[in-house]
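INFO worker-7 received task bundle
INFO bundle size: 2
INFO processing item 0
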Amino acid sequence: MSALFNFQSLLTVVLLLICTCAYLRSIAPSILDKNKEGLLGIFWKSARIGERKSPYVAVCCIAMAFSILFLS
């Protein structure tokens, strides 16, 4: 089953995208900062969400890990 049709998998993919983009921007900001618009702007926006909402993203990651490990 594709991650687009399974809600839990879709949330996992979105959380991984946000965390990965925020980490890449902390290591090398020039990679994501040059593409703020267009299709590649999704990665820049994901990095901004990961930076600004990091406590909420961390809680969501912990909740997702708990649900994957113990509820699936």
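INFO item 0 finished
INFO processing item 1
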Amino acid sequence: MDEHARAERISPALARRIALAAQGFGRPQVGTTPGTRQVAGIVDRLGLLQIDSVNVFERSHYLPAFSRLGGYDRELLDRMANGRRGRLMEYWAHQAAYIPRDLWPLFAFRRDEYRRKGSDWGGWVAENRQLATWLIAELGEKGPMRASEIEHDANERRGPWWGWSDVKRTLEWMFRTGEVVCVERRRFERVYALPEQALPAEVLDLEVLAADALRELVARAASALGIATEADLADYWRTTRAQVKPAIADLVDAGVLQPVTVPGWQTGNRPAPAWVHRDARRPRRIDAAALLSPFDPVVWFRPRTERLFDFHYRIEIYTPEPERKFGYYSLPLLIDDDVVGRVDLKSDRKAGVLRVQSAWAEPTAPAETAARLAPMLRAAAQWQGLDDVVLAGRGDLSPALAAELGASVGSPA
């Protein structure tokens, strides 16, 4: 019999609360400035922090902890992520992301896939293996270095791949295959090292079979998501549904995952099978107010975002300015157990102000949305070391927000 034939039925509202509780929302924020233990707890709960280069408000990997903890010292996360003794390391886990270093062995299957399948890019590296061999020797002799620090005739920016040099292109592919690792970033530029220069032996030497690794990764994704479909679980670590299917079956047999159905969750015209983690909290309510990174796990898989919150979200960075509807870097606004709006923010560090380029409410947004958002913006400005909040006035939420803030209204910058 199909495991979902007699599965527990969970309402869409409870599914939202389960998902948000699993992501760390709904718990009281600490009364003092969050410390290392609280920030590390967020990383452990999520399993990864996606990295992105856009710094118009704040780089994406800093935002999940701010959304869940409030203002914290970003240097705490820097210390975890940088240096040979850091608690975290960077790898292609979802997209480029910081992960706990003990997860490195679980991605051996992915490194093997890169080596086996290659690409036009990887094929180019294979045809120029002499450069890769030279880079390994150079790092072995001189220690960790940025690509820009390596002296070689091939280290000249040109051609495709963002104008990368042949050295940078080779290092980036070797980063995917695990021949080099990123030990830290300096001015957001990767510092490459040989694995043995950066990882302890107990991590470097641990071998995990692909099936075991995928089962553990699916279990961690299920814990972080609380309730999920097969597609949700596959997306968390950017695996395929074929890869996660046997892992889900094993975890159901072990009692880690429990089959459920959620009315309205569909795959085409059919109900979408879903599973809840056995340890998932089922709160009766969620008390939360947060601005979310576009790359926060709550919203990064857009089909799940629409399924959970009926919230259609696309980041408009790559949309020509005349065609943007909500703004260059709009952040989803979470109020309690729903995503009810979006706010386009810019940290104008030169002027010392947080610019609200636009603010929009969803049709179902509660009447107190502006009142709940205003203190978030003040906290965000303080966290960024900015003195004031300035509204451009664009968006249907802006008039109410200006009244709540008593803020000046300027023009977009």
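INFO item 1 finished
INFO post-check item 1: The chain has 17 helices and 18 strands.
INFO post-check item 1: The longest strand covers residues 338-348.
INFO worker-7 idle
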